[in-house]
Each structure stands twice: as C-alpha cells, then as structure tokens.
Design brief:
This protein is of the alpha/beta class. The chain folds into 2 domains: about 5-185, P-loop containing nucleotide triphosphate hydrolases (Rossmann fold), CATH 3.40.50; about 190-284. Helix content is about 45%, strand content about 15%. It has helices spanning about 5, 20-30, 45-55, 70-75, 80-90, 110-115, 130-145, 175-180, 190-200, 205-220, 230-245, 250-255, 260-265, 270-284; strands at about 35-40, 60-65, 75-80, 105, 120-125, 145-150, 155, 160-165, 180-185. The strands form 3 sheets. A 5-stranded parallel sheet has the order 2-5-8-1-9, with helices on both faces. A two-stranded antiparallel ribbon has the order 3-4. A hairpin with a 4-residue loop joins strand 6 and strand 7 (about 155). Helix 9 packs across helix 10 (about 205-220). The longest helix has 16 residues, at about 270-284. It starts with a helix and ends with a helix. The relative contact order is 0.13.
Length: about 280
C-alpha cells in the first residue's frame, strides 16, 4: 500500500449522513485493504454509501450488479466470439482478426483492475449469487489478479480498488466468504438520525412538516401485516410529493390524513392494508 493510499480518509458526502461507527469501519477496511461487507434491509443506504465514498474521495465508481445466473468470468472479462466470427467472415473491420485480445472486453472487476486511477468497486447484492461465485470472486480480490485463458495472459490490478459488497441477507453467505471481509450492519435510522437525513435533503423544510412527516412515516412502518416497509428513499420521495402539493398542510397528518400512500407502499397488498388501517383509526 502506498503512502498516498494510507492517508485516504472517508469523511462523508454532501447528501449522505454518516455515523461514527460506519466511518471507522470504512476507513479501517481501506487501511487493511479488505472488502467491506454491508448488510441491512433495503433502503438503509448500503448502495448509496459507495456513491458517497466515490464522491468524497474523488474516485470513479464501478458497480457490479450481481444476478442469480451470473458466472464469475462475466464479471472479469468477456470474449466476443460472435464479433470476431463476423469480422472474419465479412472482413470489413479495422480489427486484426488473428489478435484475440482485440475481442476481449473487461467486465466490471476487470475494469476496476485495469484503470490507472484507483476506483470504488461496488459489488451489489452478492447474496443473489451461488456459493462458488462468492468464494471464487474473493480469491480474485485477494490475489488482485485473474487469468484470461483465451490468450494465456494474467491481468494484475494496477491499483487496488476500494471494495464494498452489499447483501440483503436473502441467502446465507459461506463462512470462508464472511471470514475474508470486514462486516457492518447498517441499521434502519432511528427518528433522530432520520431528522438529520431529511435536513440534508430538505434544508428549507418547515419543522412542523418534518416532524409530522417523520412521525407518520414511523407509524406507517409499524402497521400490522406490511411485507415491504417503506424505506428512507420512500420517505424522501413522499416529502417531495407533500411539499409539491399546494393544498396540503402538515396538520392533515396529525388528523390521520395521509395522502400519496402509493409513494410509500409499492406492493398492492401493503397499500390496501395501510389504507384499511388508516381508515379504522380515523373512525375511532
């Protein structure tokens, strides 16, 4: 690790509210050159943390969105055999068909390894992948190199990326995988932290609107039978909707009048349950 890398410190970003514990684990992971595994329910800011680190440290962000059918090689590189075949058949390309390297395209991990500038590499929703993908990927990230078998070439990382891995905990990760990462669970913000988040996004929002909207939001999250609870991003979009309605006043929320439920609840059963429970509360 170079002296420059050892001095890099993440201190937060313009629209990302950072608590001390999270800041420490991010910075210690960079110092130890270890991937940071982030868990937490959707909407707690796992993905946005990578964007915030890239913004704060002025690094490019490369995002690998993991799919259940993805193979590790797809994240490393792709060999475009179809284009090479077409070039050889029609001969109207400027590429040298005999040079296979001209048909090798780097995947997201390959891009992070081969760029001259240090990057933030976000590997999003690793729990969607199978165990072999997870463990083999960490082998590559440990060694900071991989082989391109078609040209018998080893690609070594020019600079070590800052690596963040997110999981929604839909599937257990293997013990070897967990043992090779630092770990942090991002809890859902409590009302005090949420007020700080909202103040960052809406600096001119009235205190009545902020308090009533946040209070109502947490009551809605606690309703019975809700499968997908509204997250921070839904709250932000909901406040935007409330603020954009010229006929809306913050006092309506105190009376139990909650407009734009569709901004908060994205599943029909959740929307219906919320409507029913709000109606019952207003009746008594």
């Amino acid at each position: 690790m170079s002296d420059l890398e050892s001095r890099v410190t993440f201190t937060g970003a313009r629209k990302y509210v950072l608590d001390d514990e999270l800041a420490k684990i991010v910075n210690i992971s960079m110092a130890l050159e270890m991937p940071l595994l982030l868990k937490g329910e959707p909407g707690t800011g796992k993905t946005m943390l990578a964007h915030a680190i890239a913004e704060n440290l002025k690094m490019p962000l490369i995002v690998l969105n993991v799919k259940s059918s993805m193979k590790l090689i797809d994240a490393l590189y792709q060999y475009d055999t179809l284009t090479r075949l077409n070039d050889s058949r029609f001969g109207d390309s400027s590429r040298d068909v005999s040079n296979i390297e001209e048909y090798i395209k780097m995947g997201k991990i390959g891009q992070a390894f081969t760029t001259d500038q240090r990057t933030v590499l976000l590997i999003d929703e690793i729990d969607k992948a199978d165990t072999d993908f997870q463990d083999d990927m960490l082998d590559v990230l440990d060694q900071m190199q991989f082989d391109i078998i078609e040209v018998d070439k080893t690609v070594r990382a020019i600079t070590r990326p800052v690596i963040l891995i997110t999981s929604n905990a839909k599937k257990d990760l293997s013990d070897p995988f967990l043992g090779r990462c630092n770990f942090h669970h991002i809890a859902f913000p409590d009302p005090k932290m949420m007020r700080k988040v909202i103040a960052v996004h809406f600096p001119d929002l009235s205190s009545d609107m902020a308090e009533n909207a946040i209070g109502t939001f947490y009551k809605l999250r606690e309703m019975d039978g809700i499968e997908k609870k509204p997250a921070t991003r839904e709250l932000i979009n909901w406040i935007r909707a409330l603020d954009a309605d010229p006929d809306f006043t913050a006092k309506q929320l105190i009376k139990g009048e909650v407009p734009f439920l569709g901004v908060l609840f994205k599943k029909s059963p959740d929307y219906s349950r919320a409507q029913q429970q709000l109606t019952r509360r207003r009746m008594f």
